[in-house]
Amino acid sequence: MKTIQVTRSSLPPLDEYIDEIKDIWESFWLTNVGEKHKRLEAGLKEYLDVPNIVLFTNGHLALECAIEAFELTGEVITTPFTFASTTHAIVRKGLKPVFCDIKEDDFTINTEKIESLITEKTSAIIPVHVYGSICDVFEIENIAKKHNLKVIYDAAHTFGVTVNGEGVGNFGDASMFSFHATKVFNTIEGGALTFKDKSLKNILNSLKNFGITSPESVEFVGGNAKMNEFQAAMGLCNLKYVDREIGKRKLIVERYMSSLEGIKGIRLIEPQEGVKPNFAYFPVVFDGYKYTRDQVFELLKKNNIIARKYFYPLTSNFNCYKGMFDSADLHVAEYIADRVLTLPLYADLELQDVDRICKIIKE
Ligand SMILES: *Cc1c(COP(=O)(O)O)cnc(C)c1O
């Protein structure tokens, strides 16, 4: 029996990639903001419909660079219902994550609980558009304005998503996108920051290249987070197909929905009003179903179908953070993390496999 993984990377036709990388052999220019990097940056600026964008070698370092560029200090309010990267970026930059609970319906940060967590040390909010559900961006903007806080979105899951027709990267002070192999759009590894204030562009470009600002001047203690030309070439090829890939994902999600909707004890995320989704993930919450989440996970595994307990455990419960930060009021996040399972989803997943997965879950 073939194994179905939770995800599978999108690849362009091989000959198109080979064509795209051929001129690297003529230019001998492999990295450091080459021609492909520039073309991809321009292409993504247009696709994401944002005023400013800087590319990075991955999403995580993009997030760390954003934290550096905004010179954040003290405490950052964030969600524990996310991938390791979000919390690690905060901690690795010497800041304290202050965990806020999530909402029952779409698992994004609960804006009603943010203000009670703000102290004189708070410098920013780092929310996550988790699974592609959009945070309450308007309420977060109100809170941030009132308390003079920066907002950096972890938009790793929301490539190409729009809200009332506007690219999701336009909200907050900055948004981080990930182009990791497993994401809706990939550059093998890769990432980007989109941001409002155009004066950040030079700072970010310098931070990703050792803080170098000109051949004889280094103004920042920067690291190395540059996207190379092979990554950018993959991005150029994949960008041509991303709409088609999202279209295929849509059919798969619709198939899952029609098969699993309305079953007692199975909870799905409702579409959000005004949001054009990218169908990045298909999370299912088993809450009072005849099988527990862990039982469904094992059942699928026995059939060579690999689902993922995503996101479990909460980042606040990671061994490396045990007892370090307050996580008393995370009841909804704990509840969902114990019950959620993301089912296999990628553009070329066959509908008959979706049917088989649903049948196993239902019988
Ligand atoms: C993938 C991901 C990241 C990190 O992105 P990389 O490009 O792999 O560094 C950060 N946050 C979330 C929520 C992610 O899913």
UniProtKB/TrEMBL annotation:
It comes from the Bacteria. The keyword Zinc does not apply. SUPFAM superfamilies: PLP-dependent transferases. It comes from Acetivibrio saccincola. This is Aminotransferase. The modification N6-(pyridoxal phosphate)lysine is found at residue 183. The active site is at residue 183. Keywords: Aminotransferase, Pyridoxal phosphate, Transferase. GO terms for biological process: polysaccharide biosynthetic process. InterPro entries: DegT/StrS_aminotransferase, PyrdxlP-dep_Trfase, PyrdxlP-dep_Trfase_major. Transmembrane segments: none annotated. Coiled coil: none annotated. Belongs to the DegT/DnrJ/EryC1 family. The keyword Transcription regulation does not apply. CDD domains: AHBA_syn. GO terms for molecular function: pyridoxal phosphate binding; transaminase activity.
